[in-house]
Design brief:
Keywords: Hydrolase. InterPro entries: AB_hydrolase_fold (IPR029058), AB_hydrolase_sf (IPR050266), Hydrolase_4 (IPR022742). Pfam families: Hydrolase_4. GO terms for molecular function: hydrolase activity. This protein has a single domain, classed as Alpha/Beta hydrolase fold, catalytic domain (Rossmann fold, 3-Layer(aba) Sandwich). The chain contains eight helices and nine strands. Helix 4 packs across helix 6. The longest helix has 23 residues. The model has no long low-confidence stretch (mean pLDDT 95).
């Protein structure tokens, strides 16, 4: 294991490169970013009363994305948790020259990234693990949590990509995509992203708490979609549809509605323009035996990047769920 070095996010953030071997495109690495809670002064009476002092959070980003949300990290560290965010192989900080961004042929390849990030926490004895995933990261973590049920204490999903946008047609499309993935794994799917989701985020961005985004890691239009990657996603969706076995309680945060991004309108600043949220809400019920679905009016696809009112509501719902979960665990 290497050493922690300052991260691009500045003060309070450090990063660690996680070597994962090589593939046909060369060196493969993941990168974990760490944000730790401020220590409680030694003279404070009663010690550290923050509710999550024994919690580690591992965040995984979505497709065509990387970790940059300092505000999300602060939510957790303000409550005493240690926060870790993983830039998966061939994304963001982990992308190396000559690599195909985001390309894998099986979502289980990310098991190695996740295990390395968990090892990078250091001493985790007696600490609870919360998995936090957005979009494709939510799908990846859901599958991992189902395969590793005893390692997870809670799962929180921010608009997880649990079903294809044309869910009713997935079964018909999947065999063709599977054949294409075997014969021409890097065949390119047509670009359907017109950049409206990025525009919506810019429209509702908070000038009092700005975020600097590297467009080479998070382009205005989504990264190129390849056949083998799409087949891996379909396999993940099929596994969710068949039912997962996540033993830990699950909280799913979603926008209240979907807006189809065929042309620009203000509606795109108040809805999920990426997923069909009603389909995701139904699919979420197949993750495990304890699932809470929170629908947030006015939220974007990433509910924590919504306009202030919806974002505040998303954090309030998350805070309520997390405090209830933490208190319930303490009462056992």
């Amino acid at each position: 294991m290497g050493e922690w070095v300052p991260d691009i996010l500045g003060e309070g953030f450090a990063q660690l490169t996680l070597p994962l071997g090589e593939d046909a495109e060369g060196e493969v690495v993941a990168t974990v970013v760490r944000s730790l809670p401020e220590p409680v002064p030694w003279w404070r009476m009663g010690g550290d009363r923050r509710p999550l002092t024994d919690v580690d959070v591992l965040y995984v980003h979505g497709w065509s994305d990387y970790f940059f949300q300092k505000r999300l990290a602060r939510f957790w560290t303000d409550r005493g948790a240690r926060f870790f965010a993983l830039d998966l192989r061939k994304y963001g900080r982990s992308l190396r020259p000559g690599q195909t961004p985001g390309f894998v042929t099986d979502l289980a390849e990310y098991d190695a990234d996740i295990e390395a990030a968990l090892q990078a926490r250091g001493d985790a004895a007696g600490r609870r693990l919360v998995l936090l995933g957005h979009s494709t990261g939510g799908l990846i973590l859901s599958l991992w949590a189902s395969r590793h049920p005893r390692q997870v204490d809670a799962v929180i999903l921010n608009a997880p990509w649990l079903e294809f946008q044309l869910g009713a047609a997935r079964a018909a499309i999947a065999p063709m995509v599977g054949l294409q993935a075997r014969l021409w794994p890097k065949d390119v799917a047509p670009q359907v992203d017109l950049g409206y989701y990025t525009r919506a985020q810019n429209e509702v961005a908070d000038p009092d708490d700005p975020m600097e985004i590297d467009l080479s890691w998070r382009p205005e239009q989504t990264m190129t979609v390849h056949a083998a990657w799409l087949h891996a996603i379909f396999e993940g969706h099929a596994a969710v549809a068949a039912g997962l076995q996540i033993l830990a309680p699950v909280c799913v945060l979603l926008s209240a509605r979907t807006a189809v991004p065929t042309r620009w309108s203000d509606e795109l600043t108040r809805a999920d323009s990426v997923l069909v949220v009603d389909d995701i809400a139904r699919a979420a019920l197949k993750l495990g035996s304890s699932v809470t679905v929170e629908r947030i009016d006015g939220a974007l696809h990433d509910v924590f990047l919504s306009r202030r009112e919806a974002r505040d509501e998303a954090y309030a719902r998350l805070d309520r769920w997390v405090r209830g979960w933490a208190h319930a665990v303490q009462l056992r």
